[in-house]
Structures are given as structure tokens and as C-alpha cells.
Amino acid sequence: MKTTSICCAGRTIPVYALDALVIGTGCAGYNAADWLYDLGRTDVAIVTEGIKMGTSRNTGSDKQTYYKLSLASDEADSVQEMAQTLFSGGSVNGDTALAEAAGSVRSFMKLVNLGVPFPCSEYGEYVGYKTDHDPRQRATSAGPLTSRFMTEALERSVQKKGIRIFNQMQAVRLLVEAGKMFGLLALDLTRPGADGLTLFACPHIILATGGPAGVYDASVYPCGHVGMTGMALEAGAKLVNLQEWQYGLASIDFRWNVSGTYQQVLPRYISVDADGVEREFLLDYFDTPAQALDAVFLKGYQWPFDVRKVQGSSIIDLIVHHETIDLGRRVYMDFRTDPTGLDFSALSEETFRYLKNSGALTLTPIARLAHMNPDAIELYRAHGIDLTTEPLRVAVCAQHNNGGIAVDVNWQTNIQGLYAAGECAGTFGVYRPGGSALNACQVGSMRAAEHIACTTKPALFAPKQLEEQVERVLTGWLVDALESLNHCDVHSTSYTMRREMQKRMSAQAAHIRQPEALQALCDALDAQLQHFFRDYRLVSPGGFAQMLRTRDVLLTQRAVVSSMTLCAQQWGSRGSGLVLDSAGVACDGLRDYRYRPPQEVGMDQQVVTEWNSDGISSSFAPVRPIPARDSWFENVWREYRTRTAGLQ
């Protein structure tokens, strides 16, 4: 790594010149840097806003799942079958599905060898269980903190190698010329305002910045996790399938999915109005208590909202949305008292059998939870919430974006030298098996590192050329951004604009979508972005970083709404998006909710979103099929030696 400085927009900016840069310190980011180093590209560094931040380290669920090829018992499986499972989720490219399947075992065993405690039998079989959208028993788990264990193990490996980590460094702009990467502008958050401007001269960048977490108000993403999808969009990267998300019930005072046993112990659902008046509300929407409780039970393993289940378990999400958004009430799950009308003998056979086999036909949800999953109680107690004495506030929250930045089979974007791995990469579509995101982040970051190592040469640093490139590409944008520092306003609040749009997104552009409201959102976001730097008022120079985050969120929101609008107009309800229509089908228990019935349409297409001279727009593109390939050993061996010649 070399250091120098350049002058741009009247400011002297320090420069770090290196071969490859990774942005993000989650599972994907650490893995990318670790693989680059092992593959001989040791002039590598990591940039992160905070080592302890991010989704990989700070989220989990009742049983956080890692999806892999079957590695136990007599379960028949193959790379082709796993690829087909991923591909059949709809709007998925076949080549990335094949790569994720093929790289599954290699990536999983690396984590095992690094010490992640995935369970195995006494004979060394890594047993599995069945998860959602999974025809096999491919899922495994190291417990509710699986991704944290992964992150910590990979971090230890990176630290042993001495790979430099630039902590408290916010990426703000990718520098691209003629379709090729040449650098990154970042903000050193330890220095106030624009004094923190720092440039990384680098032709190979792997984005591992996580999903677009700043889009919504109701979110299970960790506080402080924003994502930087807008930065990639502004640089010219294409985005794909931004309309496809996972939404579900989560606690919001401490952000955590309330899936699994949290639902299967049958808590009481209550809502509270502005005057503090409490109401147990599920009985208002079902004919019998047993119907309500069976739907709650199914939410345990049908956690993501699904338009195909709006007359089943997903009706719970719609009811909670109605209580919180339409009626403005606060909703809680109460484990202290049994729900009104609970009669075990009246429950469905599935619900009753589960509770009986679990030895949980006892009074009160908290007693059932303590019997089946005591760690679930301790988890909340460790974060200041005692489920034995207080209810748990919940909402329908965004959890994972199945879309993201469009990538090829090597996880390279349409910009040469720019890669995306982890949730920021758009390798999933309408549906995906539970836990497949953790496999994707490991395989994608590995393949990006391999592609850099096998097909490129280490960068040669040319200071004069760099200064000329920066002058051509960055000056105008930087001058506009710095202009905001000239009109600080002590009476303004820099966060207001973002919060307003996040709330509108949760109400109108999450799992409930209405075409006219989506268009109004597009117009509002366009108005805010048109003269953003001119209109934005900083509270102080220290708000410069916050301002740039807000702009990135608005860009991302605009892209998300663009893709949702096209999908709603052309395809209607599907996946995680219920499209309202006054002439549509009435929803049982919620007669005011009329919607377009779900259709399995567009499964062989993707929605591509990009920013060009006409603004942000979306269009359809066909998916890439699963490749036919030659499996004759001698041919594969010859091709392998040619492909990996750069490693010799």
C-alpha cells in the first residue's frame, strides 16, 4: 500500500493506493479479504464504518439457518438439484444459482475449519433439517447467533494475516471512468466534516455493504445499518429485483425476528391506543379463537409474509399492519397470559400435536416458552426486556432484500473491477430457501476474490494519472456536496427528511403496495433529490456524513419504488408484495383490503433498475438459464489449468 495526496475542489485529500479494497466487515467482507490474501493478492485492505456494526454480527433468529448441500445420512442430493432449487425461486439467474450450489461445500467446510460450531454426528456427518422452500434437509445451524460466529471466525483469520482495516471510514462515492473502477472516496469519521475526505486508489473493489437497510422505518436490521446501494447505482451499476423482499413480524425495541417458538407457544396479541387503552384484537378478525391461534402457530415456521398465504398465516401480518399503520396503535405480543378462548382440544391437529409432542400443553405462553426454548427468554432479558413481566412490542418489519446489485457468475457488476457480495448482491428472486443468504455471501465473496486473483494483475499506481481521473470524475459532485457546508442552520434537523420517507415506505411500499401511492412516492423522492445539496441544511459541519447517508437512502428508495411500480403494474401481487386494488379480491377478516390475487408470473424475468440521463427507471430482462456444462474430467482439468494460470 502506498500513500500520497491529491488536490481536488480546493482541498488536499490523502490517498491510499492499493491493489484490492473490500468495503464491509460482515461475513462477506471478511471472507472476501481472507480469500484474496490466501490467493496471493496481499495488497488488500478493508474499509468499514464500524467493525462491530452490521447485520452479520448483530442479528439472528430463533434458529439462524445456514443452507448447504446435504452432507449426512442417505439423503440424495447433488449440485444440480440444489441449483435447481435456488433457480426455481423465480427471477433467479441460473449461473449464479449453480455457482452457489457448487461452492456450498467448500465454503461451509472453510467455516467449520475456522471453528464455527456447526453440529455433526459422532461419525462426522453434518446433519441438516428442512427449512422453508427446501425440498431436502439442507439446513444447518450453530444456534441463533450463527452469522455472528461466522463473522468472528473470519475476523480472527483476517487479523492473523495482518490485513489492514480502516475502521470508522464511511464509503461515500465510487470513482468510475470508461466503465472501470479506479477508486473510492470515503469519509474518515474520526475527523469532522469534509476534513475527513479520504481517497482509495484501487482498481478492484468488492462491495460487502449489506442490504439496503435504511429504506424502511419498520426494520429488523440493526440500528445504524444503512447499506450503500445508492452509491453503486450512482456509479452506474445496474440493480435487480429490488421489489423482492422478506418482511415479517419482529420486535422493534430490540430488533429481532419473532419466529419459531415465539409464535408456536401461542402468545396473546394486544394493541394499545394513544390513550393507553389495551385491546386483545385477533378475535375481531377471526370467527373462532382456534382459527386465530392456528394462524399464529403457523407464523412460527412460515415467518416471511407471502401473498399466497394471505388467507392463512400471513393474515397475521396484514392484521398487525392494519392495527399499527391504519389505526395508529402499538402492537404487542404478550407471553404472560393465555389468549382468550385458548382450548387445546379445539386447535388443529398440527398445532396440538406439536405442543403435545413438545410437552408444552401447559398454561401461559411464557411457561411453554421456558419449557421449549428458555434461551429465547434470556435473549430478551439480556437486552433489557423481561418477557415474564412485560409485553413485547412488534411490527411487520423488513428483514432481507432478495434483490440488489446485478452481478455475473463471478459476482462482478457491469462495472469492470466492481464486485458485490452478500446481501448487497442481487442473486435471489421471489422466493429462496431459508438460510441460503449465508451460503450466498460466502460463495459470492469467494468467487469475487478468485476472479480478481485469476484474471487480473496487481495494480500499478500512477499518481499523475490518478489526479487527472479524479479531476474529471469527482470535482463537480464534490463541489456540490461541499456547498452544503456553507449553509448550516442550527434550527434544522438533518434527520427529518430521511425519517419522513422511511415511514412512508413502511406504510406504502413494503408488503402492502398500491400503484397510485407508489407513483406519489416516486414524485416525492424525485423532488427531494433534484436539488438535494442546495436544499439540505446541515445542523453542523459534523452532519456532513449524515447528509451523505441520507442522500444514499433516498437514491435507494427511489430505485426500490421504481422496481415495485413496474412489478405492481405488470405482474400484480406476487412474492412479498400484495398489490391493493379496489376491484380485487376481499381479504377474509379485513374486508377493506381488496387485492389483486397472486399470480406466478414473470418468474423467467427480472426487473432491472438503473440510473441514466432520463433518471432512475426499471425494465424487464430475461433470467440467465442454468448452464449446460461438460463434466468430462479431462476437459474440465484442461479448462481449469488455463483459467487458474494466473495463480501459478
Q: Can you tell me about this structure?
A:
- The chain is α+β, with helices and mostly antiparallel strands and 648 residues long.
- Among the domains are: 153 residues, Flavocytochrome C3, Chain A, domain 1; 130 residues, Methane Monooxygenase Hydroxylase, Chain G, domain 1.
- It has 20 helices and 25 strands.
- The strands form 6 sheets. Strands 14-13-18-17-15-16 form a 6-stranded antiparallel beta sheet. Strands 1-2-10-9-8 form a 5-stranded mixed beta sheet.
- One of its GO terms (cellular component) is plasma membrane.
- Keywords: Flavoprotein, Oxidoreductase.
- One of its GO terms (molecular function) is flavin adenine dinucleotide binding.
- InterPro entries: FAD-dep_OxRdtase_2_FAD-bd, FAD/NAD-bd_sf, SdhA/FrdA/AprA, Succ_DH/fumarate_Rdtase_cat_sf.
Order of the strands making up the biggest sheet: 14-13-18-17-15-16
* Structural class estimated from helices and strands: alpha+beta
Gap from first CA to last CA: 23 Å
Spans of at least 5 consecutive residues whose pLDDT stays below 50 are: none
Question: What is the fold named in CATH at topology level of the domain at 247-399?
Answer: Flavocytochrome C3, Chain A, domain 1
Q: Kindly report the average pLDDT value.
A: 94
Q: How can the largest sheet be summarized?
A: 6 strands, antiparallel
Quantity of strands, as a count = 25
Highest CATH level, the class of the domain at 247-399: Alpha Beta
